[in-house]
Design a protein that fits this description.
The protein is of the alpha/beta class. It contains eleven helices and nine strands. It has two domains: 52 residues, no CATH class; 224 residues, Alpha-Beta Complex (Spore Coat Polysaccharide Biosynthesis Protein SpsA, Chain A). The chain has a nine-stranded mixed sheet.
Length: 288
């Protein structure tokens, strides 16, 4: 009986000492993650590295758009305003014809400026300028008629992880690349190839095919002839879809992403401006 009592007292004493000493010597850790991480440098570095790898933004957060004047017609003004509200992470820059020419004059040689001045359709001049500004600045060029579809969760900020081109509808003999949306780092040589081709076209007064003067044909040729420098560019995810010009839209992995804001009204505004490039092309008013 005495032995049982002694054993019982020993258990009580040991339990008491364990609880007391554990409470006394136990380190009190803060719940602050940064302080916890500093006790393990490897964990902190690993967490930091993981965050960087998760969202490597390589595209400058600038969106470039253009029209012949800064006094935008109603539908274009609406689209421009909506796009800015949809993409608050970006600076949205609007250039008119005078600003485009000044940018080319400041950043390129006289051959490029002469090509710009030789072209008559505003859309053709805008094509040349968009290649120039994306080559120098990088970022996103987007035609002023587009806004993000309200039924998608996608935003342009989701496309700053790499460079993208948009697959256009096929041409008569080959595919085109849609130049209404271009996402690029600065100094992408594809755009320099486009600029050089437009210089050559203006010097030779090329008129064989409308979209091969400055537009999707030029971009496609520059890509396909230099495919070796496009290995890290996404050429497949973004595509142009739709049956009629007024409702064509850009899809990402076959899900609608960018749509034309009030497409029918937009093209009526273009028609009123008497600057439609296809009409000028048919009338052989391409070069000065």
């Amino acid at each position: 009986m005495i032995i049982k009592i002694i054993l019982f007292l020993n258990v009580i004493v040991i339990t008491f000492l364990y609880r007391y000493l554990n409470k006394y010597f136990k380190k009190k850790y803060t719940k602050d993650e940064n302080i916890i991480c500093k006790y393990n440098l490897h964990i902190k570095q690993a967490l930091h590295k993981n965050v960087i790898l998760k969202s490597p933004n390589i595209i400058p957060l600038n969106i470039y758009q253009t029209y012949e004047t800064l006094n935008l017609p109603g539908v274009m003004k609406e689209a421009h305003t909506i796009l800015k509200s949809q993409n608050p992470e970006f600076m949205v820059h609007l250039y008119d014809d005078t600003m485009r020419r000044e940018f080319i004059k400041t950043n390129f040689n006289t051959d490029v400026l002469k090509a710009y001045d030789t072209l008559i359709p505003g859309a053709f001049r805008a094509d040349l300028w968009r290649y120039c500004i994306i080559y120098i600045k990088g970022g996103i060029y987007l035609d002023i008629k587009f806004i993000i579809d309200s039924n998608t969760n996608l935003k342009l900020i989701d496309f700053v992880d790499k460079e993208y081109f948009v697959r256009d509808f096929p041409g008569p003999n080959r595919e085109f690349m849609y130049n209404a949306l271009m996402i690029s780092k600065p100094k992408n040589k594809i755009y320099l190839k486009c600029i050089d081709q437009i210089i050559e076209n203006t010097q030779n007064k090329y008129t064989k095919e409308c979209l091969n003067i400055t537009g999707p044909g030029v971009l496609a040729t520059s890509i396909y002839n230099n495919i070796d420098i496009c290995q890290n560019i996404d050429l497949k995810s973004l595509k142009l879809q739709g049956r009629r010009n007024i409702d064509t839209h850009i899809v990402y992995n076959n899900k609608k992403f960018l749509i034309k804001h009030k497409g029918r009204a937009y093209y009526k505004e273009i028609k009123k401006s008497n600057s439609n490039y296809s009409t000028l092309y048919k009338n052989k008013q391409v070069y000065n």
